[in-house]
Amino acid sequence: xxxxxxxxxxxxxxxxxxxxxxxxxxxxxxxxxxxxxxxxxxxxxxxxxxxxxxxxxxxxxxxxxxxxxxxxxxxxxxxxxxxxxxxxxxxxxxxxxxxxxxxxxxxxxxxxxxxxxxxxxxxxxxx
Length: 127
Fold this sequence. Notes:
The protein is mainly alpha-helical. Helix content is 69%, strand content 4%. It has 5 helices and 2 strands. The protein has helices at 4-24, 30-33, 43-52, 67-87, 95-126, and strands at residues 36-38, 41-42. It has a two-stranded antiparallel sheet with strand order 1-2. The two termini are 32 Å apart.
């Protein structure tokens, strides 16, 4: 029987693999989403934010790690991915990618905190 924690860990591993593959493999559609959408803003910046949005939700799989420490691990992951891209000839290092990775982490953190607070308030009202 698969426990929730084991299932969560498995989903986290799949998520990490997907994030690395999305950011490291030479994907054909990357050139299309790197065209400026509005001024200097490109669609791939939004993609970077959305990719890191669920990071904080996986904190539930690792309850012994504090949320702040988990957030720092997410920051290090974002920096690692961009650092790897710096050395790949078919990918490029972009400071805005790091910024939007962090924006995704922050949005996920705020969303998680808000949902947790709402759920806690709801459950306290049920008592």
